[in-house]
Design goal:
The chain is mainly α. The chain is built from three helices and no strands. The protein is elongated. The termini are far apart.
Length: 139
């Protein structure tokens, strides 16, 4: 009985682990975004629950893309390094990394705004002192 030739390569273990983690994170991201899409939200949830779910969903999506890129790059190293295509494997890994960086750059403003609005302005809509215009006039 023959055993697969990639079991001897340690990079193959990295590929398998990165692939599994990427799959699990992408499933979590899909579950989070579908729960956002199908749930009913009250007015209060738009300030607390919804931004946190959006941040967690975007975080798992970015981590999933990073792990997918690692798995993709390592698969090229596993398959083509022994055949003399090391330079091609490095170029493909760098280009794949640039795609992830581009995704993060394009979504950075959204992540920053959601994080700032949900965690930075917690007391913006709940002032401790009442405004003088809203008080009942004393007679």
């Amino acid at each position: 009985m023959a055993s697969p030739s990639f079991f001897q390569n340690h990079l193959f273990l990295v590929f398998v682990l990165a692939d599994v983690v990427s799959f699990l994170l992408s499933c979590a991201s899909i579950a989070i975004f579908s729960s956002i899409n199908t749930s009913r939200f009250a007015e209060r949830d738009f300030l607390q629950t919804l931004p946190k779910k959006l941040m967690f969903g975007l975080g798992t999506l970015v981590l999933s893309m990073m792990m997918l890129t690692i798995a993709f790059s390592v698969s090229f190293f596993v398959c083509y390094t022994k055949k003399g295509f090391l330079a091609m494997s490095i170029i493909i890994a760098v280009v794949a990394g640039l795609v992830v960086l581009l995704f993060i750059r394009l979504h950075y403003r959204l992540i920053y705004d959601v994080g700032r609005s949900s965690f930075g302005s917690r007391y913006l809509f709940k002032p401790k002192k009442t405004c003088s215009l809203l008080q009942k006039p004393t007679v």
